[in-house]
Amino acid sequence: MKRRDFFRTSVGAGIATGAALHLGGYNRLWGRSKSAAAPFDLVAVRGGEPDVMFDRGIEALGGMKSFVKAGQTVVIKPNIGWDVVPERAADTNPLVVKRIVEQCLAAGARQVYVFDNTIDEMTRCYRNSGIEKAVKDGGGKMVPGHIESYYQEVTIPNGERLKSAKVHELILESDVFINVPIMKTHSSTRFSLAMKNLMGVVWDRRFWHANDLHQCIADFATFEKKPHLNVLDAYNALMRNGPRGVSTSDVTNMKSMLIATNMVVLDAAAAKMFGHEPETIRYIRRADEMKVGTMNLDNLNIHRIQI
């Protein structure tokens, strides 16, 4: 497959030294929009601060009121898995989360909840990631993700390996589900993006790792309670040693964001930003084959915003 020129213009001074391996893919993700008219399948934004990029991106999709109605309950699932500071880019940027909370409340949401089933100790992850303060400042509510009684058993009818899972009740009971991963590498799956971020809404992830992790990720993506909106934070991207990283030297300041309603579309675009074709990432390919979404971006309506 011929790679499209998505980021045809120069990357700019924001890209860290040492990220040259990935710049080809980053540049290929920027080109001309197929159509200037909404609705868009994917919005790609670059060049601004995290909150500004989200404002511009969601505006292109019709504004938050296109997703959140008055009186609804919203659950936001960032990546808060690691006890590290925001500059390490192992967790979602707190400014992105805060602005999404604010936008949901401005759209009339009755309550906005935020949680993750963290890897490191939960209270430290929530605090040191900066997300707990950001959510509270934005008017939202942090909810524990480390208590098994909060999780309910569900079936995955179309799963090949993953036939059931315990899912956090907030996901099952919310009116609107917003998935907010950060763009980073991963030692087991190469990349951690939108579909991989959903591992933080289930209780027992050990089964996934022991029973074909790529297939389990694709299986869970078939579950009926899918995110209504996916926002990939690529302001700072963890380019090496993911999913936790070792130091800030692993991080590249991309000043970018991808927004889509479909997880496969978003993950396929992010793979191209990393310089890889989507079909080389097996969970993306399997999700495409299982009809969760398409990894072929050629015929999609992609809107690109340069700030």
Helix percentage range: 25-40%
The computed structural class is alpha/beta
Largest sheet: 10 strands, mixed
CATH architecture: 3-Layer(aba) Sandwich
Nutshell version of this structure?
This protein is of the alpha/beta class.
Structural write-up:
The protein has 307 residues and is α/β, with parallel strands linked by helices. The chain has a single domain (25-224, 267-306), classed as 3-Layer(aba) Sandwich (Rossmann fold), CATH 3.40.50. Helices cover 29% and strands 21% of the residues. It contains 11 helices and 12 strands. Helix 2 (50-60) packs across helix 3 and helix 3 runs parallel beside helix 5 (131-138). It is globular.
Write the layout of secondary structure elements.
Blueprint: H1 20-28, E1 42-46, H2 50-60, E2 73-78, H3 94-106, E3 111-114, H4 122-128, H5 131-138, E4 141-142, E5 151-155, E6 164-168, H6 169-173, E7 176-180, E8 182-186, E9 190-192, H7 194-197, H8 206-210, H9 213-221, E10 229-238, E11 251-260, H10 263-273, H11 282-289, E12 302-306
Parallel strand pairs: 1-12, 2-3, 2-7, 3-4, 7-10, 8-10
Antiparallel strand pairs: 1-11, 5-6, 8-9, 10-11
Summary tags:
single chain; 307 residues; alpha/beta; Rossmann fold; 10-stranded mixed beta sheet; two-stranded antiparallel ribbon; 11 helices; 12 strands; globular; disordered N terminus
